[in-house]
Amino acid sequence: MSSESVDGQWHDVAAEGDIAEGAFEVVETDDLVVAVFHIGGDYLAIEDVCTHDGAELAGGPVDGDQIICPRHGARFCLRTGRALTPPAYQDVSTFSVRTLHGRIQVQIPD
After folding, report:
1. What is residue 31's predicted lDDT score, i.e. its pLDDT?
2. Separation of alpha carbons 89 and 101, rounded Å
3. pTM to 2 decimal places
4. What is the predicted pLDDT for the residue at 110?
5. What is the pLDDT along the chain (110 residues), one digit of tens a residue?
6. Residues 6 or more apart from 75 whose CB is under 8 A from it?
7. What is the pLDDT of residue 28?
8. Which of 18, 55, 84, 104 could bridge to 50 as Cys pair (CB 3.0-4.6 Å)?
9. Is residue 8 within 8 Å of 2, Cβ to Cβ?
10. E-state strands within the chain
11. Number of other residues whose CB lies within 10 A of the CB of residue 68
């Protein structure tokens, strides 16, 4: 499951089992793009934006529970959103994930 507990709407991501281990799916709303990763049997969701320069993180290499920005190599923890290496110093937002009736859903704040 995930990190932040906030009020918000649950958005459908995919059927349980559709996101392979190590893979991801992207969900877009009017205000956010969220990447949901399947790592170590858990579904983890982060805002799909590098805090260093605004690049997409999804599609970058995944190393354990870390995502590496494909542009400049900053690392972020997929579990906590923490910025782990320069050139990023600001954390990325994380979101709650659940499975309900065989569907993976992410909670995005209002």
Report:
1. 87
2. 38
3. 0.90
4. 79
5. 444 445 789 999 999 999 999 999 999 988 899 999 999 999 999 999 999 999 999 999 999 999 999 999 999 999 999 999 999 999 999 999 999 999 999 999 87
6. 63, 66, 67, 68, 69, 83, 84, 85, 88
7. 93
8. 55
9. no
10. 8-15, 24-28, 33-39, 42-47, 62-63, 66-68, 75-77, 94-95, 97-100, 103-109
11. 18
Peptide bond into 109 cis (omega under 30): no
Burial class (CB in 10 A: 0-12, 13-18, 19+), 59: middle
In angstroms, the CA 87 to CA 95 distance is 23
d(CA 107, CA 40): 20
List of domains in the chain: 8-109 (2.102.10.10)
> Residue 4 is encoded by which pair of tokens?
């932040």
The tokens for 52 are 């260093």
